[in-house]
Amino acid sequence: MDQSFSNTAVIFVDIINDFDFDGGEDLYLHTKAILPNLIKLRKYAKENDLPIIYVNDHYDLWQADFRKIINKCTNGKSSEIIEALAPDDKDYFLIKPQHSTFFQTPLQSLLIELERNYLIMAGIAGDICILFSAQDAYMYKYQLRIPKNCMASEQEQNNDYALYLMRSVMDADITPI
């Protein structure tokens, strides 16, 4: 991760998740597999004073309060992941209405305010929410790093295809951390 810190932000997508949906078990297992890498990325961001921005589904709460969303999502399956990666009061937390972290959220305004144009994206689901977010980030001319060992989807082949698109079409660096 040799990028200059002065223009870098880390974005965690949908990390607070209940995995309680059709396909959730597969997504949970793939997320557990990348959990050590996500922890490493969060630690790296904290050690280097990079802003960490969580952009998460709202779970019908419509309040950008990570504690309420954690309460709603914590269960026997999700608790280990949430406890390891929960935001703290120094992190930013935004909710999103649909797949992209940019669609109808203040993310772009926040990135402009923070003067960040190099984004490290990580989280779930890679073939939907991260893919749509990466496409929007690319359209807004952000430079992207999406470490392939920090992204999970329900199906591995869909995750691999999304990574291929992000690398080949959106010029994202997918080098593992």
How would you sum up this structure, described in words?
- The protein has 177 residues and is α/β, with parallel strands linked by helices.
- Helix content is 42%, strand content 16%.
- Strands 1, 2, 3, 4, 5 and 6 form a 6-stranded parallel beta sheet that branches.
- Helix 5 packs parallel to helix 6 (156-168).
- It is globular and about 40 Å long.
- 40% of the residues are buried.
Short account of what is shown:
The chain is an alpha/beta fold.
Separation of termini? 7 Å
Overall radius of gyration: 15 Å
Total beta strand runs: 6
Which word captures the global form? Answer: globular
β-sheet strand percentage: 15-25%
**Largest sheet features:** 6 strands, parallel
Element-level helix/strand string: EHEHHEHEHEEH
Mean pLDDT: 95
Number of helices: 6
Structural class: alpha/beta
Task: Kindly state the percentage of residues in helix.
Answer: 40-55%
> What low-confidence regions span 5 or more consecutive residues with pLDDT below 50?
none
Record keyword descriptors for this entry.
single chain; 177 residues; alpha/beta; 6-stranded parallel beta sheet; 6 helices; globular
